[in-house]
Each structure stands twice: as C-alpha cells, then as structure tokens.
Design goal:
The protein is an all-alpha fold and about 90 residues long. It contains three helices and no strands. It is elongated and about 90 Å long. The N and C termini lie far apart (about 65 Å).
Length: about 90
C-alpha cells in the first residue's frame, strides 16, 4: 500500500513540476480550455436531461406485485394447518 501511495505522490509531483515549467500564457490557455470543456460538458448534460424529461410521459404506473408464487403460499398454508391441528389436539 505504501508503494502505491509513493508512486501516486511521485506522479503528482512530476505533473506539478511540469505545470510550473510551462509559461504563464500557456498555463492560462490550458486553464481556459479545461474550463471551456467542463462548461460545454455541463451544458450538454443539462440539455440532455431537459430533452429526456420533455419527451417522456412522466407517469408512474402502480401495479400489483406478484413476487411470491402461489405454490409457496399453498405450501405455507398447508404447513400452518398441520401445526394448528396438532396444537388443537
């Protein structure tokens, strides 16, 4: 675990040193490009969400849940009847 942490720290320091070596104009250009890409991606996601909500019918259907099979219910009721009949005697 320590080796992984050391490698991550080494690569982070190396990237930081490369960033500091760049001229200030290039740093500003990269910062503007990264921010522009992030803003464009955010705008695309918001537009995609708006389009998907406008196109759907936005109705919730509530139906009966048929998760438990009928055979299990009958087996359980038969076992309960047997137990109740033994208790009554």
């Amino acid at each position: 675990m320590k080796r992984i942490r050391d490698k991550i720290e080494y690569y982070a320091l190396q990237a930081d040193n490369r960033w500091k070596i760049l001229p200030v104009k290039r740093q500003r250009l990269f910062t503007k490009l990264f921010f522009g890409g992030y803003a464009l991606l955010t705008l695309l996601v918001i537009v995609s969400i708006c389009i998907s909500t406008v196109q759907s019918n936005n109705e919730i259907s509530i139906n009966h849940i048929d998760g438990v099979s009928r055979s299990l219910q009958t087996k359980d009721s038969i076992q309960a009847d047997k137990i109740n009949s033994l208790i009554k005697k």
